[in-house]
Design brief:
The protein is α/β, with parallel strands linked by helices and about 600 residues long. Helix content is about 50%, strand content about 10%.
Length: about 600
């Protein structure tokens, strides 16, 4: 009945409903699809593979050795052949052995060439294998692409193009970074060259001219340049003959250095001049720098109540970081840091230790009080040295703790009670009048009031507040006090007869000058302090000459011994007779005696001084 289907005839069917709805898709596809009738365009990977193939084939051809000469003379030159026979030598050197050696060399060369050829063949085969694998990969990629729809192929091509563009941009960035690094390295080299030239030019220090000094007064101070100028100036002064500027005097360099040091470290010119006279220039800056740093906190163990080992363990348990002070002290501890206030621990309140500077240990150690003696501490506040003397005497004997300032004696009384000292009597007298009160002491400790030039780290106001009048006033008071202290000592004591004079100053006027004055005015002599460290005292300073025995005194500096600046001298009294001036007749002798008495007790009892 109906039509028969002929399977050989394929009936072309028209577009379906979906195709009719998507009219205009052909035009959109034409934008993405390219004409595939022409030669196929290689992808970025394909181009890279092709370049590698060409490069490897060129390397293989280069590795193959060429016969004959490789230069322009190869047309008319030919490799030389052996002319002589093996059995006909011309000379003694042309023997069979010689020929045999040549044959061996030729054979070795041929073997090397053969090996190179084999290697070239192997590399060629490997290259061919790699090319075949890459071709297979490309074919697989092509097959995959054929299986994809036209739109998917177009999207894949776009993706590949983007990747290729990203690779090119990354390569460009790498090149730019390499260029920047090269530029930086070149710039650094140029900087190094300029620095080197600047150092070469600035090797010789030059004094600033009048215009530069005027500009410095107007422009704000540059502390960094001043510090560098101090270093350069000191270097020139240490090697003045070789590094000085022609036509310039040493005094000009010294005046500039003093001005710069005063500006940089904030000292007045008087005090800086004193320090420049006292220290070598190479040591001066170290001393000034040490004055800018606080000394470490130290405590003294009260052996009347505990041992140093037990105290250290108790403080460590409370979070205190500490160490023994040094081999020279058996009771000192240095505190680095603490999680609790070191002046309010239960151990402190129980009197197991005393907050005391390391330099304050030294005069008591030099005094070396013995048990059962009568000892005077002429200026005892705040009581650190007094209580140290008491613990060395094990609460035996008698200690008179005197101070001219009644308000400061309160701290002495408080520390005596807290530390458990029971052999001390507290008095409030002017030290210069103390011989009238009582005498006959076995040992006397005089920590005289001073300008405080050794404790600038504690009191920076000393930098600008002290002048020549203050130094003279302190020196005059110290001379009066040392004579009164000597008169308080009993020279006939079986165990003592000693005086220790100390100050927290480093000026010569307050130390060596005072002791030298006492040596001339009283029957005393200097003896060793018993301290194993410290700098010897001056026997000669500028235009002054002192007694040779002053080398037995000891000086301590912040930059050398890491403690406050201190001076310690120990004197032994060998006669209670007060020497007078040159012996004369009758009234002259009495006048001299009256003058010495006036000198000895020049101040009235109502006068006082502050320590």
């Amino acid at each position: 009945m109906g039509r028969k289907l002929d399977p050989t005839n394929k009936v072309k069917r028209g577009p379906g409903k979906k195709a009719r709805k998507q009219q205009g898709a052909e035009t959109e596809l034409a934008k993405f699809l390219t004409d595939e009738t022409g030669p196929k365009r290689l992808s970025s990977r394909g181009r890279k593979r092709a370049a590698k193939r060409i490069q490897k084939s060129a390397e293989v051809t280069e590795k193959q050795p060429k016969k004959g000469f490789t230069d322009e003379n190869s047309k008319w030159l030919k490799p030389a052949k052996r002319k002589r026979k093996v059995d006909e030598p011309e000379n003694e050197d042309d023997s069979n052995e010689h020929w045999e050696e040549e044959d061996e060399e030729e054979e070795e060369e041929q073997e090397l060439l053969q090996k190179k050829k084999d290697q070239g063949k192997k590399s060629g085969k490997l290259a061919e294998k790699e090319v075949e694998e890459e071709d297979e990969e490309e074919e697989e990629d092509d097959d995959d692409e054929e299986m994809l729809l036209p739109i998917e192929r177009a999207a894949k091509k776009d993706k590949k193009l983007k990747e290729a563009l990203d690779l090119e941009s990354d390569e460009d960035d790498d090149e730019e970074e390499d260029d920047e690094e090269e530029q930086k390295s070149d710039a650094e080299m140029d900087e190094d060259d300029t620095i080197q030239t600047n150092t070469d030019e600035g090797e010789r220090f030059r004094l600033p001219g009048a215009e530069e000094s005027e500009m410095e007064g107007v422009t704000p101070l540059d502390l960094k340049s001043i510090h560098q100028r101090i270093k350069d100036n000191i270097d020139v002064l240490c090697n003045f003959s070789t590094k000085r500027e022609p036509g310039k005097d040493r005094t000009e360099y010294i005046s500039l250095l003093k001005k710069d040091l005063c500006t940089y470290y904030s000292y007045n010119s008087f005090l800086m001049e004193k320090f420049m006279d006292l220290f070598p220039l190479s040591e001066l800056v170290d001393f000034l720098e040490a004055n800018e740093i606080h000394r470490p906190v130290t405590i003294r163990t009260n052996t009347l109540k505990t041992r140093r080992r037990d105290l250290a363990q108790a403080l460590i348990n409370r979070g205190v970081n500490l160490d023994p002070l040094g081999k020279w002290s058996k009771v000192g501890l240095v505190i680095y840091d603490s999680s609790v206030p070191i002046g309010a621990t239960p151990e402190y309140l129980a009197g197991q230790y005393m907050l005391q500077g390391a330099s304050s240990f030294l005069p008591v150690m030099a005094l070396s009080p013995q048990e059962g003696e009568l000892v005077l501490d002429m200026s005892s506040a705040p009581g650190g040295k007094t209580t140290y003397i008491a613990q060395l005497m094990r609460n035996t004997g008698v200690i008179v703790a005197n101070d001219a300032n009644a308000d400061r004696l309160k701290s002495v009384v408080g520390n005596i009670h807290r530390l458990g000292v029971t052999n001390t009597v507290v008095s409030n007298y002017d030290g210069r009048q103390f011989p009238k009160v009582m005498g006959g002491f076995d040992r006397v400790l005089l920590d005289a009031p001073c300008s405080g030039t050794g404790v600038i780290a504690k009191d920076p106001a000393v930098k600008t507040s002290k002048d020549e009048a203050d130094i003279r006033r302190s020196a005059h008071l110290q001379k009066e006090l040392i004579l009164a202290a000597i008169d308080s000592v009993n020279a006939e004591s079986s165990t003592g007869g000693y005086l220790v004079y100390c100050t927290c100053s480093i000026t010569v006027e307050e130390n060596e000058c005072v002791v030298d004055y006492a040596l001339k005015k009283r029957n005393v002599k200097l003896v060793p302090t018993g301290l194993d460290f410290g700098t010897e005292g001056f026997t000669r300073f500028r235009e002054r000459k002192f007694h040779p025995s002053l080398k037995l005194s000891r000086r301590f500096y912040p930059h050398s011994h890491n403690m406050d600046g201190f001076f310690v001298a120990k004197l032994k009294k060998f006669s209670n007779v007060i020497p007078t001036a040159a012996a004369g007749k009758g009234n002259r002798k009495n006048k001299n005696r009256k003058s010495t008495e006036r000198e000895q007790y020049s101040a009235t009892p109502s006068q006082s001084y502050d320590f």
